[in-house]
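Ornithine transcarbamylase, mitochondrial: structure, please.
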Amino acid sequence: MLFNLRILLNNAAFRNGHNFVVRNFRCGQSLQNKEQLKGRDLLTLKNFTGEEIKYMLWLSADLKFRIKQKGEYLPLLQGKTLGMIFEKRSTRTRLSTETGFALLGGHPCFLTTQDIHLGVNESLMDTARVLSSMTDAVLARVYKQSDLDILAKEASIPIINGLSDLYHPIQILADYLTLQVGLFPCTRVKSTNIMMSAAKFGMHIQAATPKGYEPDPNITKLAEQYAKENGTKLSLTNDPLEAARGGNVLITDTWISMGQEEEKKKRFQAFQGYQVTMKTAKLAASDWTFLHCLPRKPEEVDDEVFYSPQSLVFPEAENRKWTIMAVMVSLLTDYSPQLQKPKF
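Here you go.
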């Protein structure tokens, strides 16, 4: 089965902001019985195969069905402890992780910059070793991807990226889970790492950014390599309307990420014309849907689109919980999904 998806997006995978378009999502490939994920780090989806990503989505759907629909209690993480390091404030990442880990019987420990200063009063190496001795995994929402890389190198437990200046893999999983549910007879998801994973799903990407806000060259180069290997296309443009043309899915993101507040005036000027409106949607396919990782500002998308029946932003937000639960279960246990495999 072939779907024509196009996604407008602008966030951390790009150097300063971006708008994406994703097309041609092929469904029908079967999943392997059990992916070998236990004990691994989740720093970026580029480190995972398409089948491994599909497995995490299958597990997300399984947990959502068994816990939310059937009302089962699954203490899969009983006796486990999660360290949660947050250098940036958060609503969805904190709630989804804290409530999800607890719902599975585990104990999450929330640590802010007032509790722990990465690499300041203690080296990253020492921090990683201490956390490894007291917790079973760490989810870190940080400013620098390099901090996560050091933590992962020095820790003996799984390190999970809760957001960095380059990647946001747990958001992408939620986006794919959301799309899977609405467009296919299975489940859905989205985020920053989409350039690192779209080709593995048979997607073509068309990205629209203002001049000077193009994707990080290293990420673009790698995404082009993945596209070549998987027979897909990656196109970059400065025209948001062209990027939206014929798309089934429109995605945009915040123009100003945390830590970029001083650039507000400059960014507002650069992103003029990038607001998603019904004018944008008229160029998309008749069955278009809209995603946004939240929090949303009116200049990024107007109310008519944001609160329209085509908008999936709130199911997308909820799916952050089920996908992060699936990540924790897959990295920390040997549990296998009981739900029938979805068709991707």
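Notes: The first helix runs from residue 50 to 69.
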